[in-house]
Amino acid sequence: MSLLSVSGLRKSYGDRLVLDDVSLTVEPHDVICLIGSSGSGKSTLLRCLNLLEDIDDGVITFEGREISDPRVDPREVRSRMGMVFQAYNLFPHLSVLENCTLAPRRVHGVPRAEAEARALLLLERFGLSEHAAKHPDRLSGGQQQRVALVRAMCTSPTLLLLDEITAALDPELVGEVLEIVRAEAEAGMTMVLATHEMAFARDVATSVCFLDRGRILEQGPPAEIFSAPREERTRQFLRRVLPA
Amino acid sequence: MSDWTPSQHELDRRRLRRRLRTRSALIATVMTVLVFVAAALVVTGSPGWPSVQELFFNWDDAREALPDIWDAIWLNIKMFLIAEAVILPFAMLIALARVSRSPWLAPLRATAVVYTDVVRGIPTILLVYLLAFGVPALRLQGVTNSAYVWATVALIISYSAYVAEVFRSGIESVHPSQWASAQALGLTRGQTLRHVVVPQGVRRVVPPLLNDFVSLQKDTALASAAAVFEAVFVARDYGNYNFNYTPLVVVSCFFIVMTVPLARLCDWLTARMRRRELAGAL
């Protein structure tokens, strides 16, 4: 059974229709890249999946249960689904290690020693162990975003949502963040990510969705989408973002 | 967009959301009524209630004292309106002195630190005594002896120190990157404060500012210590002659009626600012 499935999803803010009849299936170990210009609905789709937005129609199923049901406790869903934002959103008053152990300890009831051991292991794996005791604002943007990724993974989620996590970083730092994402993808983590990094999407994605004005216009394996797009809109978009 | 009709599933979901909302509203209503009824029963069921009711909640005494209190409360209102109007700019100046960096302003900075430290340490009622009785005793030429004026000045001195610290905490809570980006645009430190940092800082401290003003409104009653004929003095006066303290409750009601609109106004202003700045954002 698929890990996550979306069908007929619709979301509007007042008169503005942001997502229109979106359907998507995510199998375990999939890496789904959402591409498309700003305002095409990529972020909103991720926010709907994480139940940060109430949807206007459609069904979202996660681990075999409909989570778009109003009776579902969103916190329970989010404890199994990690999310990383464009602006890192680390807690500035906590050290890196405390950022990483907050949810495991408070939400999942993991004992402190165990939570810290796991966080340190992950920080170590991503070259951040020397920063564990520092506060986030002392780190570079790339380091902060890597910490945010570690924080999201500390709870061992079954699905990771990444919302343009490299968009606020300068090009030099993009690589170090994407390396982590790539390593996680190769380790079998299931991910849905909105991204502007086409080369990365081509390398890592199992499937690429092109969103245009709130619809998934085209979906397929990266080789297909990037070399032989079916839709004219997709071709236009790729011409603009891909180096000639 | 016009050709879309909600699916059956969505209609069911809306019905369910509505039902959950109704249930929340129901729980809120029932709980509220239950708690307040229980509290009322406990108070009115207590053995001493009849005598308390006679002493503090007597309708006839309330009506009899009302005209005098009505006249006296204007004095309180005038006091805090004048005090608030002076405190806001004065406290802002103290706060700005404290965050100044120029070496020329070092004495001013030191004065501001000492002022807030010392004044906040003195109980307000002592300041009222000190000024309302002390200044007239100096027998200075051309200076008023009105206890009312000097009580108001005492309140201004005391509350300026508190409000200055509230302003300063707001100013210091603005992220350093705001300083950096304003100075990168070529603004001076003063301009940065005036156009970027202070406006943001003040917005953040509206709730504690309101706290201080509500507190000030009530502390106008301290003027009664200097024999100013304000509302609490009048009410106590009535009690001393008639052995009934209902007028004190009446005065409390007046104070509540004065502070609630201020609280609502501040909530409304804060909500409007949030709406404007976060419209459409996360």
Structural overview:
The complex is a heterodimer of chains A (244) and B (282). Chain A is α/β, with parallel strands linked by helices and 244 residues long. Chain A is 37% helix and 24% strand. Chain B has one domain: MetI-like fold, CATH 1.10.3720.10. In chain B, helix 3 crosses helix 11, helix 4 packs across helix 6 and helix 6 runs antiparallel to helix 9. Chain B is flat, with a radius of gyration of 26 Å.
Q: What radius of gyration of chain A results from the CA coordinates?
A: 18 Å
Topology-level CATH name of chain B: MetI-like fold
The rounded distance between the terminal residues' Cα atoms of chain B is: 25 Å
The CATH architecture of chain B is Orthogonal Bundle
Strand order across the biggest sheet of chain A?
A: 6-7-8-3-9-10
- Outline of chain B, from the CA principal axes? flat
- The quaternary state of the protein chains shown equals heterodimer
Largest sheet of chain B: none
For the secondary structure, the number of strands of chain B is 0
Topology diagram in text:
The complex is a heterodimer of chains A (244) and B (282).
Chain A: E1 4-13, E2 16-26, E3 31-35, H1 42-49, E4 57-62, E5 65-66, H2 74-78, E6 81-84, H3 96-106, H4 112-125, H5 141-153, E7 159-163, H6 171-186, E8 191-194, H7 198-204, E9 207-212, E10 215-220, H8 222-227, H9 232-241
Parallel strand pairs in A: 3-8, 3-9, 6-7, 7-8
Antiparallel strand pairs in A: 1-2, 1-4, 4-5, 9-10
Chain B: H1 8-44, H2 49-56, H3 59-99, H4 106-121, H5 124-138, H6 147-172, H7 176-184, H8 189-204, H9 206-219, H10 231-242, H11 246-278
